[in-house]
Every structure is written in C-alpha cells, then in structure tokens.
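MODEL INPUT / OUTPUT PAIR
PAIR INDEX: 1
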Amino acid sequence: MTAVLNPVPTRPPAPRVHHGDPSPSWIPTRGTALALTALLVGTAVLYLWNLSASGYGNTFYAAAAQAGSQDWKAWFFGSLDTSNFITVDKPPASLWVMGLSGRIFGFSSLSLLVPQALMGVGSVALVYAAVKRVATPTAGLIAGGVLAATPAAALMFKFDNPDALLVLLMTLAGYCVIRAVETSVGRRAAMWIALTGIALGFAFLTKMLQGLMVLPVFGLAYLIAGQAKLRAGVLHLALGVSAVIVSAGWWILAVWLWPANSRPYIGGSTNNSVMDLVLGYNGLGRIFGSTGGGGGMNGGAAGSSFGGSTGLDRLFGSEMGMQISWLIPAALIALVLGLTARGRAPRTDLLRASMIVWGGWFLVTGLIFSYMSGTIHPYYTVVLAPAIAGMIGTGGYALWLERSRWIGRLGVASMMLAPGIWSWVLLHRNSEWLPVIGWIVLAGTVVGAALILFGGGNRLRKLAIVGLLVGSLAGIGGSASYAIATAATAHGGSIPTAGPAGAVSDSGMGGGMARGQAPGGSMARGQAPGDPADGPEATATAPTASTPSAGTDGSASSSELTAMMVGAGTRWSAATNGSQSAATYELASNTAVMAIGGWSSDPVPTLDQFISYVANGDVHYYIAGGQGGGRGGGGSTSSAIGAWVEANFEGVTVGNATVYDLSGYIA
C-alpha cells in the first residue's frame, strides 16, 4: 500500500492511492456504485425472497417477540409471555428489534423476519465498506459477496434467532476498529474505539459472551497498528472497555435493581440473576461444558451431539462444514500469504492491520468453537462469516498487488484452487443434490488458477484479470449455490440447518439427528410452523399430567383448545411444561401461557407457587405434556406440578391434548 495516513496530527493524511488502481479508492466511480447497488439488492432479494415460508421460524423467540410487541415490560426483559412469568434464556437485544417491528407494523411472520434479513444486508454493506477503506472497491465487493453467499448467513439472516443481530454488531465493531487504526487524530481514534465498545456491548446484550470473543483481538490490533503512541493507545482502549461496560451493564444493573417479585424470572439461571446466566449457562458453561441451571445437557455430550467431536477439524465436518467451511481454505491462504507479502510494510500499514482484525477474529472464535465442550450448534458459526469475507478481501488484495512476483500469483491461484477442491468435497457429501455443480466449480477454479499463474507479465495482464474473474466466480460458486438452496428452503425448529429441503449429508450430523431436526423431534427443515405433523398436539396418545409427551415445538394448537384459551380470561390462559410448548400455544391463541420449567430445567414455579397461582385464579387450564429445550419440561418442578394437577383435577381430551380446568379450586 502506498498511502499510509501521516501519524503527525498537524498534517492532513495523504490520499490512499493503491497499486494497480487507476483512481483513489475513496472516489466512487459509476461502475463501483452500480456494482455495490447490485450486491446489496441481490443480497436483499436472496434474504427476503419467500421469507414468510418459514412462518415464525423458531417459535421460542417468536413468542417472546410477540409478547414484546404487546407489553413494554415483556419487551424490556425479553419475557416469553405478556404476563411476565419467565424470560427467554438470552438477553433481549434481538427481541427489542423484532418486538418494535411487531408493535409498529403488527405482529406477523414478516414483521418478525424482515428485520433479520435487513441485518444481513447491513452486514454485507459494512464488510464492503471496511475492506474498501484499506484496499479497493473491487476487493470490498468480493468480500461482501463472500459474506452474502455463505450458507450459514443465508440461513440465519432468514431466521429469528439472535445471531443475525450479533453478526451485524460484531461487523460494525470490526469496521469501527479499522476506522480507529487509520485515524491520525487522537480524538477521532478515541471516538471510533468507543463506538467499537458500544457495538460489542450491545452484542453482549444479544448473545452474552459470544459477542465479546473478539474484544482482545480488536484491542491488540489497535495497539499494534494504531497511529497513536502506546500510552495514548492504552488510554483509548480503556475508554473502549468502559464503553463496553456501560453499554452492556446498564441493562444488567436495571434487572438487578428491579424488585424480583415484579419482574419475570431470568430464564436459564439457577438463582434468578443475569450474572448467573453470564458465568454459567450462556458463558463459561458453553466453553467448559458446565451448564449451570439451564444448560440442559452435559457439556461434552452436548458439544459432541450438535457440533461434532472437538478438534481442529470440527469446523470442516458434519453440519458445521456445510454451513461455514466452503471458503475457509481460501481465507487461511489469504491471511498467511497476505501477511507475508506485507512483511516489510510500516507498522501502521492499514492493509496488514485489517488482516490482523479479520484474521484474529477468525482464529480466536474458530479455535473456541473447535474445542469448546459445552453446547454448540452448527449455526453459531455464522459469526465467522464476516471474518472469512474480510480475510479474503484484504489478503487477496495484498497478494494481487504482488502479482508480478511468484508469491502473489501463487497465492491468488491457491486462493481459487483450494475452495474449488473443498467445494467439490462438500458437494459430494450430499451426492444426490446437483452433483454437476461440484465439477463446474472445480474446473472453473483450475482454469482461473492457471490463467493467474501464467498471466503475470504486462503483455498477459488482461489474461490475469480474466483468470481473476473466472476463478473468483468459480471459487465462490459452491458456497453460493448452497446458500441459494438454503435461502429457498423453509426452516423451523430450534436447530435450523443449511442446504436444500430433504438433503442428507453423507457424513451425517454429529449426533445422528436428521438434518433440520431438533432434539426430541422438532420440525424438519422445510416444514413451516403450524404443520399438524409435529408439536405438542401431535402425540398419538394423550399424555398424563405428570408424563411429558415426546412431541415437539412447532405445531399450532387445535381450534377448540385455542378457543378455550382465548376465552380463559385469566392472567395466564394456561400452563404447560416447557417454553417450546408454551410458545406454540401463545402464538396460536395470542394469550399468555405459563412455561413451567422454562427452556429446560429452571426451578420455577415451585409447587407451592403454582398452587398459589391456581388458588388466586391466575391460571385457567393446565395442558399436559409439553417440551422445553434441553432436558425438556422443567425436571422435578414440572413432575411435581403434573402429579398434583392429576390428583386434584379431572382431565379431558381436547384435540390430541389432555387439558385440566383449574378454575374454582379452593385451597
């Protein structure tokens, strides 16, 4: 790179003109503007097309968003129901967005999922902007296209899990770090570092510690490559950490100060506190396998069954590989050879600093995912997608600048050939789905790599450009084809998976589950919520009050039961075991339903508390069975309550459910 910002604040920075780029990268040409518009519009079409086919997606979060669209307290705490019995097992930032959308536009599948898709478009735009600042618009377009065409991104930006907002906020933080590194004015650098902290703070309020995994990497990158002196840089980072604490801590403090008897129970915790959730179930328990109160599963077993066995190959195997690994080989080559190519650049070299940001993000997060022994799902890997995109955009550009040397040509050619070979392997894992694509991708990358290798001279420069175009399109082709197939397929349940409907990888999923199927049998990929083939209403034999059914999380309530719940007229129309079942009934009836035991084994309500609720006329019906998320249904709490209900009330069959009328009870 020929233009590094002057570290002397009294002198204006020099224009950042790049080798081989006829115009400064900060001047948008007409072609660049059109290409960016095409990228963003194409991303929007990919993520918005047929969006409502997935219905409410994950009914657990959909019910909480519905509650938040109707009740401000439920919105603030992330409650599962409008009567504020229990929260979801995550902080509420993503629910704030979906709840506000539902309040403004009316709650529906589209008001729930459109914000998620737009977060995907925003993430692509941020990756483009971040890479363009240190390279060229072309490199930015390539990076943005890589993110948009990642199957994990096509899956989660069309779904209502918190991961969409998490990716957007982490990408925004990465962009802010790069802005801070390039800035020679101390106040501006401090401002960008503070904005980085704010973005990561809200990422924490989206998915807790997962949003902070990149924090050490971003700080190190700023100290290494920032233009501020060491002392000033440390002070800037202290400001950034303070911004993280304030932007994340205000909600934790509010929950702590709020009287516990007038707010919902913190789902997933053992003692009704957010910090227990941070340090246990949603924090260290995820990494080391100790689940705390709400983890629901033994750490080693959970990590193995959902994400494959631990090790460096975890990201490449099973469902994880199908979602995220398509372009990892190219990204690693770009990082290693790109850093090598910039070895003699000044300390403040922006291109190398950007590679440190994206590469550090990928390496730290990827290693944690590879070796964590707690609960991990394949779709968590979507947070790696912006890092992979940034590594390819910046590292690839660094090698392109060196195309007159063998390291440059060999590096760019390897970046094309490696994903071509790996895409061929991945596509043949699912040998029944369009196997010809694998061969086309492989052939295209071979041709592109050959043109790059032998097109280094000035006379053959056009040949190298053709090779770059052919090889890039082919290299991303496998990932893009699987992303399109993913986007064209309806998804539901608690563990969505990538790929076309009905596809089964030859390597299978880690725990032997069918693709798109959650533990206990949640709805298959392509099966929209409300399908009578699954859910708590789908059991062939009505369960007893004390024996939870083996049903799943996606069905709608029967029309008769829905009418009963609508007419209940009580604080909670019904109570049932587990948040998944409660969410289903809430979405069907638009009433508050008490989720006994929360997501898995939360110790609420106790039997005495439940009896008190019934005696006060707060709960009208008890619906037998039900399902949570982990062990399902609240453990001993739900068993004790079910046994008490069965002993004191007579059940009737409504549809396929056994329902107990609790009204008129006298203690």
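PAIR INDEX: 2
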Amino acid sequence: MSWLKSGFELSFRIRPVGLALAALYAFACWGARHFSVDQFFLPAGIRVAALLLCPPRLWPYLILGEYAYFAPLRYPMIEEYGISWVILGSACLIPAVALIVHLHRKAMASTSESWLLSVAASAALVASALKLGLSHVLWPVPPSMPFYTNAALFVLGDYIAILTVAPLALLWLRRRGGYDWSTWRLRPTITALSALCALSILIATAGARDDAARAILQLLMTLPVIALTCIHGWRGAAVGVPLMNIILSVTMPSTGLPGSFDQTTFFTQQIIAITGTTLLALGSRITHHYHQRAPTTVQLQEPKTVVFSRSAHLASEMDLRERALGLRRVADDIEAALDETLKLLRTHGQEGPAIDLLRTFSSRSRKFRELTSMVYPTELEHAGLYVALQAGGLSEAWEETHRVVRPVLQGDPCQLSMGLQLAAYRVLAESMSLLLKEERGQIQLRARCGHVGQHKGILITASLLDRTSTLSSRTVDLAIERLSARTQAYSGTVSCLDNRIRMVMRDTHYEMQGDSAPPRVDAPIDMPVKY
C-alpha cells in the first residue's frame, strides 16, 4: 500500500490519426442524423460499423467522437431536460455497444458471419433500453408516448440501421478473404440489381399515391435480395439487405424531422427486418457450407513447388524427431547406468564420490536435454509453440546471452497446425540467432497467433529494442535468404523494416485438410510416427 503515500502516475499517448478518426466519426453521425428518423436511425448503424472497423486501441477516440457529435445537439437541451440526462445519455451509449462488440470478438474469428445478427440485436436492445430508461428516469417530465411503443420504435429503427451499415463494414473487413467469382454470376447479379432499381422507381412514383401499392412494392424488393443471397452467399445478403433498407428509407413519407413516423412503412419495416435477418443468416450458412465443400482459390492456385517444399520441411522434421528420440533413449540408458554406479559406490561406502558424480552428471544431463530439445522441440507436441519456446533449450540459450528481453506472446498457437508451429519455431530460432550474431544491443521477440483473412496464421517480429537502430544490409540479406523458404512454404512473407524482421505465416486450405495433408507431427514423443 506504499502507493497511497507516494502516489502514482498515469500517462497516455494522443495520436493525430485518432483525433482525425474522432472528427470523421462525429461528422458521419451528424450527417447520417439528417437522413434519419426514429424508425430508421442511421447513427446507430454507424456506431457499430465504426467499432467493427477500428481496432480496440482506437475505441477511445470513437468515444471522443461520439461526445463531439452529441455536444452541439444536447447542450441546448440542458434547461429543458436537465444536465444529468445530457451527460449520462451521451456518455453511456457507445461504451455499452463497444462492450457488446468486444464480447463477440471470439465469434468474429470464426468462418461464419452469423455473429453479426447477435451484435445487431444486442446493440439495438441495449442502446434503446439506455435511451428510454434514462429519459424516463432523468427527464423532469417523462415522455408522453407509452414506453412499449417507444421501445418498439427505437429497437426496430436501430436494428434496421445496424443491418444497413454493419454488413458493409464486415464486407470491407473480409475484402481480402478471397472470393470465387465466376462469369455465370454476372448476368443474374445485374438482373437482381436492376430489379431493385426498378422497384425503387415504382415505389417513388406509383407508391406515392397509393399506400397499398407502396406496401406491395416494398415487399417485392425482397425477391431480388433473395436472388443475390443465393448467388453470392453472405456477400450477396451484405449488399442486398442494406440496399433494400436504404430504398425503403428514401421512399418513406417523412416530414424530415427525427420524430417523423409513417405507420404503413413501420409495418413493412417489421417484415423487412425479419426478412433481412433471415437472408443474412441464410447467406452465412450458404457461404460456410460452400467453403467446406468447394476448393478455395488459394488451394486451386497454390503452386506445386510450395506443396513440395512444405512436404520436404515436414519430412525433415520427422527425421529430426527420430534423432531426438534416439538421443532421449541414449540419455535414459546413461541415467540408468549412472543409477547402478551410484548404488554400487554407496554400497562400498563411497558416499562423497557418489555425491560429486551425481552433481556433475545432473548439470551435464540438463544441458544434454536442452540441446536435444533444440534438435526437435518435443514440448511443442504436448503444449504448443509458446511453451516450447519458454521451457526448452532455446530459452536457456537466449538467457545466457543476457541480450534477449522477455518475449511478448499473444494468441493461442494450439489452434495452428503442427506443421506450421514447427516451421514457426525454426523461423523464430533462426531470426533470433541471426540478430544475436550480426547486431548489437538488446533484442525482443513478439509473436501473435490469429487469423490472416480466412486462414489461421502467426505474425512474428524479431526486433532490436532500440527503436532508433537500423538493421545492417548484411542482416537484411541474410534474413531474406535464410527465412524465406519456410515462410513461403506456409504462404507467408519475410520483410525487414528499420530495426525489425517481420514474418507472416498461415495455414492454407491444403495444410488444414485431414486426408490429403502431409503427415502431421502430432503423435506423443514416446510413440512412433507413421508415414
């Protein structure tokens, strides 16, 4: 509790890009509000889309941007509604929605996009509950409209707005995920988009005079969107559903004020919300099953040389594994012989020589096993890459140099294939060895496991701790020469930037297949590996 006397210090860094992001977010919400009504409130969709597009380290700037958006709108309302509502009502929304998005982070890593519906529903419910709850509690005079009517209006408006903007944000996030575009998709896609445009024109002209005709035309818009979903999977739904919602909003009779309400469109929106939810869920399942059954573009275009290189590396690992097993057996035999020798010495009263022999052999045995683990990391098979790095001989060798600081290891390497983990282990060892020999100063290792597009992968960075240092040209040439083979075998790259070597490796479709993949190194260390 000494900090109570000495105090503590807080520090933070303000990024110019963060301030620009806050201004852009505030301007986007301000502009979207002018095209919104309560039953279609676009800022709710922009809020979720921004949280999906931006990494968590930039979320504080989004919160700042939301405050900047609310400030000119609600400051004049202080006298009418009270300062408590103005502050709390502006401060609670985006942190609550950010928490919802954060809780879905693990689901976002999956190949299915159905988690977006859970985010949309949760965000709409929580945001509407906060808005209505705070207004009923903190306003001097509660709203005149019944609570449940207001709740239905706000929840539906937020939910449809999220389904309008968030799928487009997700489409941008998955833009590099690879898509098997075929020429046969072109004509039906153009036909479906043309049908949507034609229906929007009919709604704007004929529907303006007849509410019944407008409702029928609005419902007919679901047919082209269904076609897009069947043709393109979730990508078709991610384009079709927002287009349908935007057309519905643009053609809705409105006074131009946020409180504007159209009963006919409200009933249609309820049907459209259910339809949009169903289409996004259906598109997600179509895409998921398509990727399971059909070969991916990466698999079809993967050069045979890469496949052969990966197989050669795995075969080499198998050979090293057998050598490590042989060394283990030799060590076990030596330890058994030593036990017999120690028993014999103690039987003849030679306790001193027995203790000296045991002490000497223990240090040699530990060193021998550390070197054996560098031949083949057996810990990797049981506990994963990170444990093998921290518990094997590699960690001891780095510690003896007094130049390697504590590594920063993030993510779960056990989700990666065994072949990729072994390749990453070799790349890590080689890059650190290269920096220790060719460069001066302290060195830090960083590794992060996650998703690269639609594939699981790992990002590795071996860098000099001094950020002002720069790698020599010899180090750069050696790094590219020695590390490229293994990284390219796993669809990766090697790059040298300023003071660091950066490597990306990923599990391709070929590597993750069960029957057609090369032999995996996942048997226990005391069992033979079948080729």
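PAIR 2 NOTE: The beta strands are 408-410, 443-452, 455-464, 493-497, 500-506.
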